[in-house]
Design brief:
Structural class: mainly alpha
Number of strands: 0
Order of helices and strands: HHHHHHHHHH
Largest sheet: none
Number of helices: 10
Shape: globular
Distance between the termini: 69 Å
Radius of gyration: 22 Å
Number of domains: 1
């Protein structure tokens, strides 16, 4: 302050100036998260679409799926393109009646991000054996959610079960849709893994490349598959088993120190939304009287 003697006479002005600089840095830091939050709004919107049938692809039950949109191997490539178009253009269809879900997800994600470092710095997670076992468990559980749709499709073909065959196709379609969305979010977020730099979880780090921690691929794949399975075969026991296993995938990714809590929160929520969206727009094997 040698060149600014005037500030010595006005200490209050000096403190105010420092406060403004600190606030400005904080604002610029959070401003960088805007692309991530926008993406969350985009991918969350389709799951709320059914509330505004006049302007969105979803309509109130019963939902009549046209033959060209039905779940068949022949229709799958076209359906994937339609799904992606619906997901990425959904912001233009947001209304006050369907914005609550996306906004709540953004708020929950923001809160989770602010506590990620503290959560991952816990001494309970600093256990190499626990981390290794949890990683193995997460890989195995994810394999279940990949194998079940594939197995159901094969079983459906052998036994001529349209519902089993459809479940296999929609499960695969939902996972492909989810993976495509997740990879875009990873490229934007560029977040460091919990094992890097003391689990600070910094975003927008160019050195991260394709290994971004946010969101979790395991979580989004498991929950998109789970949403289709639970929708095709509804029931309390089935829901408990299916979503319980999906929760296990998300939890073990944190225990393995492969992801922060916010990573699996977003992956789980977005995966479920996409799975439900795919089911409601392409299933035809049975009526929807149970919804």
């Amino acid at each position: 302050m040698k060149h600014m003697p005037g500030f010595k006479r006005f200490p209050g002005l000096l403190r105010e100036n420092r406060s403004m600089q600190s606030s400005g840095k904080l604002f610029l830091t959070w401003l960088r998260f805007v692309p991530v939050f926008v993406l969350l709004l985009i991918v969350a919107a389709p799951s709320r679409a059914q509330q505004t049938a006049s302007s969105l692809p979803d309509v109130p039950k019963p939902l009549i799926v046209p033959p060209e949109d039905a779940a068949t191997l022949r229709n799958t490539p076209r359906n994937l393109l339609k799904d992606q178009e619906a997901i990425w253009t959904s912001p233009i269809r947001l209304r006050t009646s369907n914005v609550a879900g996306p906004v709540l997800l953004v708020i929950a994600t923001t809160v989770a991000i602010t506590t990620d470092h503290q959560a991952m710095s816990s001494s309970r997670l600093q256990d190499a054996s626990l981390n290794s076992n949890a990683d193995t468990a997460s890989q195995g559980l994810l394999g279940v959610f990949v194998a079940i749709p594939a197995g159901l499709y094969g079983l459906g073909r052998l036994r001529h079960s349209s519902q089993a065959e459809e479940t296999g196709i929609l499960g695969g379609e939902a996972m492909v849709d989810s993976l495509a969305v997740n990879e875009v979010m990873k490229v934007v977020a560029q977040r460091e893994r919990p094992t890097v730099d003391g689990a600070k979880g910094k975003f927008f780090q160019s050195g991260v490349g394709t290994g971004s921690s946010f969101p979790s691929n395991h979580s989004i794949l498991a929950w998109s598959s789970a949403a289709v399975l639970a929708s095709e075969y509804p029931g309390r026991i089935n829901d408990l088993a299916i979503y319980g296993l999906a929760t296990g995938v998300s939890a073990t990714r944190v225990l393995a120190r492969q992801h922060f809590p916010s990573d699996v929160l977003v992956g789980s929520a977005v995966g479920w939304m996409i799975g439900r969206y795919v089911f409601r727009h392409h299933q035809r094997s049975h009526d929807e009287s149970h919804f």
